[in-house]
Structure to design on (63 residues):
């Protein structure tokens, strides 16, 4: 009878540990990925609404 009580306790405890591990792995997210291209396309407009074609554009390596 004592063995049955031990098994009955271990089953829910094991489930709680596995569920906690699963939630930890899901909720922590993934590692951020590095950008493949480190240059940025900059577009400069000669108006405040940023409408129409850009007046000037170039590739920026540092922002």
């Amino acid at each position: 009878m004592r063995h049955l009580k031990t098994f009955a306790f271990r089953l829910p405890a094991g489930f709680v540990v596995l569920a906690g591990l699963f939630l930890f792995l899901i909720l922590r997210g993934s590692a951020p990925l590095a950008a493949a291209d480190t240059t940025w396309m900059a577009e400069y407009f000669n108006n405040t609404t940023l409408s129409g074609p850009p007046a000037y554009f170039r590739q920026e390596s540092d922002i």
Residues 45 and 51 are 8 Å apart (CA to CA).
